Amino acid sequence: MQPDGPEEANYRGFQADRERALSCSRRALAGLMQLKLLVTPLARGAWFDERLEVAREELALLLPGVEAEIEHRAGLELLSVELAKERVPELARLSFLQAAFEVTGDALRPLALEPAYALPSALVTEARYPGKTNERVTAQAVNVALAVAGHGPHRLLDPVAGRGTTLLTAARYGIEAYGVERDVKALADFRRNVKKITKLHRIKHKLSEGSVIKRRRDGAGRYLAFTFPQSGVRLVVGDSADPQLVGRGRYTLVVGDLPYGIQHRGPGGRRDPLDTLAACAPTWAAALAPGGAMVLIFNALQPRPERLHALFAQQGLELLPTRCTHRMSESIVRQLAVFRRPVAS
Question: Which of 41, 111, 193, 330 pairs with 82 at a CA distance of 20 to 30 A?
């Protein structure tokens, strides 16, 4: 085959430019913007080798009908999407997003996306304790729950609250959050972390403590609460299978990072957390308001997804198709299980 002469090359270049111009015109007429979403390098620490697929899955959950193509450019990882202009602000809280650019010809124009957080990120990122879930994974779970539950106002329950990462993430979003944690030592750790960070960053707050039930010798019912200008969090010690501690039908969002079945041991010393979850599922499901969303982060190897899904389906919750699957280690493959409580007709 003979190489193209100058005229043929010029003609093909003209045709390519014409197609790009026509494509831009069609998008403009349809009110669409062509965007490149830059995936933060920090996503590698949250979702490892599957970070781009997980990012694409989160985008699809938050913006149904929007398709994204993975793109690599000069060592950067991007998602290429077309989006209606009025929906662009919805990108701001994506857990994987570092920056968004509008494609204008051959240039990329950065967009000013400012998520309206009620509190600084330090409240979540600067707390340090063993077993803490990556903050971006937590933010993704809250994002998905909000997308499923729709417009607020919202109130969030974390029935396996640990040291409060999910609670503080919700507080940043301006959401009232309530958590239950079995480990009585969690209250002291939670107090120490939040007091230190609020002092360093001069975050206005009010601290209160007490008991939500009659005091018990084992400490169940004791709580610690921080009230911020636009939100508040309360962490309670006890068993989240207890309806007295959790309540019924009060939460539009239930978000929890379940034990991964590695160190956790349930009844009889078994490592499978399903027995514990079976005891908790009725209380957690009853706490979810009609139309509300439940998002559980779990290890797909322990318990198996179909067993977890069936457990909550038995409580009248609707399973929504999603995965966000990523391998953390040889024995942990993390997934999201997403449920919704149907609204009675």
Answer: 41
